[in-house]
Amino acid sequence: MQGLGHRVAITGYGVVAPCGIGKEAYWNGLLGPGITGTRSVEIPEWDPLPYFESAKDARRSDRVEQFALAAAQEAFQQAGTLNVEPSRFGTIFATGIGGLHTLEEQVIIRVEKGERRVSPFLVPMMMANASGAAISMRYGLQGPNETICTACAAGTHAIGYAARQIAWGRCDAVATGGSECAATLTSLAGFSNMTALSSTGSSKPFDATRDGFVMGEGAAVFILERYDLAVARGAKILGEILGAGSNADAHHITAPAPGGTGAIACMNLALEDAGLSASDISLVNAHGTSTPLNDAAEAEAMTHVFGARGVAVTSGKGVTGHALGAAGALEAAQVLLSMEKKLIPPTAGTTQVDPAMTIDLVTGFARAWTPAPAISNNFGFGGHNGSVIIGPGE
Amino acid sequence: MDQELFNRFVKCAVDTLKVDAAQVVPAARFKEDLDADSLDVVELVMALEEEFGLSENIPEEELAEVTTVGQAFDIVVSKL
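Structure tokens for the assembled complex are given below, as produced in the milestone run.
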């Protein structure tokens, strides 16, 4: 990654998702069945208490923040003790929306019972930066603490920007990732009425019969660390952030630029940042939302950059649904798990790749894989594009 | 002290502050004994206003003076 020459290691990560809480459960979920017959997938019987000192603290956190702290706990446990000054340990976190459930509940309370009944905790619970703030407070991280809200590209943007903090020399470590919990009745109605959600309730990225996404939720948190410092303390290097790209379509608030031109430019920026060529990339973890427009533009972009069927492609959204600002984080975790397991999970739900696409989509069964640089792409409403290139660890 | 009213007060405190009912005694101090900060007290008062069907809200100036359970309970009773 371009900067002052510091390499960026990943030394810990944690995941909370409907298909599994914790990395191993999440991996098993990714290899399991896809989503059918629902417009949103949520974590069943979520219990925040194991991640908080008291029930009161848990109740003061929106579910989106609870997910973030739970994923952070697993990430910090794995990373172990870092030799980093608090002032050089940052938090660069992502969410698409923030504490939407809290906001929606309190709007209803205000309408039904009046202003006096609105919770004094509404503001700290709904604000988009609450998750990043909670992580920094819990772990005493006094470096830059910024929240990125670029819709569905936010998770990828956060990881890229977090890595840049280290590459630039501003931080020696950064906690990064994203969290989302936004499947409220009102938001589902909005996504549904704009015809973004699957009318059949199935997520099947790049399938000929795809008809929209299924809303997901969850969080993933990563501990990024200056590579030489991680090596010096004997930490296990799980992966490396090799490069990142970020740009804008400047085209339309929801539709991707025709031909995926913005996505092409973004992937090329990430490759240039990593000092790699397209042929060095052996896996694309696609945005692959299962919407007609995204997947068509994204497939075209991948073919442009990597050639027809030039690289293995997978999308986890057949299992996870689309967790908006957490998507990029959940998908970077998929890449790291693939590197550990030497397997690419199949794109669940997809049985017939759209014949108009010339991509090598992994479907049906997991594919054996020799870990090598992989690119994870995410694109957000607003024309935000994000790419991050992850290399294997030791 | 009206025990029936106080029991209703205790129930609100247990629900909002997540403390044991046994801790909610008149001498208990919100900050030191119940780990409740000013926002917690605001939330408790809102719950009390609802529980006791108070027609007028308890003004902030009065709340600012409150440090113990007994003081809060007296204010509620005075508004009934």
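Helices of chain B lie at 3-17, 30-34, 38-51, 60-64, 69-79. The mean pLDDT of chain B is 92. Further analysis is deferred to the final report.
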